[in-house]
Design goal:
about 575 residues, alpha/beta, Urease, subunit C, domain 1, Diaminopimelate Epimerase, Chain A, domain 1, 8-stranded mixed sheet, 6-stranded mixed sheet, 20 helices, globular, Metal-dep_hydrolase_composite, hydrolase activity, acting on carbon-nitrogen (but not peptide) bonds
Length: about 575
Amino acid sequence: MKKSILFFVVLFSMFSACSKSKESNKEADSESSKLQQTMFYGGDIITMEGEEPVYAEAIVQADGKILFVGSKAEALEKYEGKAEEIDLKGKTLLPAFLDGHGHIYNVGLVSMFANLLPPPDGPGTDVQAIVNTLNDFKETEKGKWAINKFGWIAGNGYDDSQLKEKDHPKAKDLDKVSEEYPILIIHQSGHLGVVNTKGLELMGWTSKDTPNPEEGKLRRNKDGTPNGVMEENAFFMALAKLFEKADEEVHAKAIALGQEQYAQNGYLTAQEGRTTPDQVRSIIKEVNADKLYIDVVSYPDMRMKGAYDIMNGDYYSHKHLYTKKFRIGGVKLTLDGSPQGKTAWLTQHYHKPPQGEGENYKGYPIMDDAKANQYLEDAFKNKWQIICHTNGDAAIDQYLNAIALAQEKYDYENHRSVIIHGQTIRKDQIERAAKMNVDASLFPMHTFYWGDWHVESVLGHPRADYISPCKDALTAGLNLTSHHDAPVTFPNSMRVLDATVNRVTRSGKILGPEQRLSAYEGLKTLTSWAAYQYFEEDRKGTLAKGKLADFVILDKNPLKVDPLNIHDIKIEESIKEGKTVYKSN
């Protein structure tokens, strides 16, 4: 890391007759006395201010805040010899990215498991590949450590839509890996999973008479016995069982690994978008040990016992202030499942229903209207920002209706409630949300990862073409962000930008070309508009004097490369409040 120069300058009133240039030097000196300063120049510096790209020739930071943005000549006039000068050598500097929606804690946790993702992110091409990967994993040092810590063999990221069989593995498949240890593999959506026979036994799910858990479902064999595949709350119950033995070492490692991945991708404000009370307590331990080096914003799951106590604790601030880079940002609510897993709640039936369901199957809600209305009323009464997982348009209707009822009861105009995912949002819902001051964090990465699957199996044309309709959302006036939902996908900022701009599927088709954003608009979903979503537009998201010196340096300018090559852009450096927290190589 380059060294900053510490200097001391004393001003005397005898210089009152100085020229304008000396007066400007005096102003700079009075602001920068005893501050550590760094000047960047020699590349494309994109301020992200305004509706069109604005470039600066130089930027100066001092003690973690931006001191100057402007021409190189003026920067040198004010700061030459007083600030460390860094030549970008043609690279691009812009505000660091803010996480529209993700799960930084869980990113770290699943990093401890076997990688079952499909190509290009992993080896998950068919059921046998999953079995082979798990067998190999359990013999590695990493695998042995995880088995010792959790008492389970675990894998993350399989996707039935990308498996040769076009179906989920079953308990009998996972039994080939181990009959001694319970096994849990997590679907890439994060809403389904599979356990082996030992896992079913531990959960008590062995009989055809075993009922479905509340707000969840067990898929079954022809004789009615559970086959190992779990949906929604059934899956979350098994996941909780997996984490029962996790100790402080596991939790600390999860936070460290999560931060590492986010910083490598230029995200210096991260979200833990469905935090359990135990996870909040674990994060706070790391906060007290000064282990956070990027900002983390947590949204506790409203449905979990203890969530309201957390909201009334020390780490929630209506002024959106951090304590050692951590704050509670509001609350999370989940109203349905995932479209790719066919558990999202739709108003029209799925193109092809999942196994065991009739042709009119539309998915299902997580809760009834009365519960949803009560949760929204609680959020508005307490002036808590709420972010709500709604993939299906029926779930979005439920959410907007609940917000409308809460708005009638409570004066909370600047609520900035967020639609999370909004995969099948309709145009009339977009227009309604805009009138209600509701933000949207959409998930256009679906166009690459599941676009073909949405066309072939989930939605069909024309609904599949309209998933994550960013352009219509922007045109209607919604504040818009684009996210990765990590660990559903990797927190790869350039993949997020690529999907937002290009909407290219795995097979090379463009899905809904009219919903593509420009590269500049795409960058705003990761910077200035994301800062607004977090109520942090006064300190982040653009390069302006007085804001935090949160920067990301890229090897190429996303505004100047062929849009189809955006995903190849590399993160060279991530700088949090003036300090480098990641540097390539």
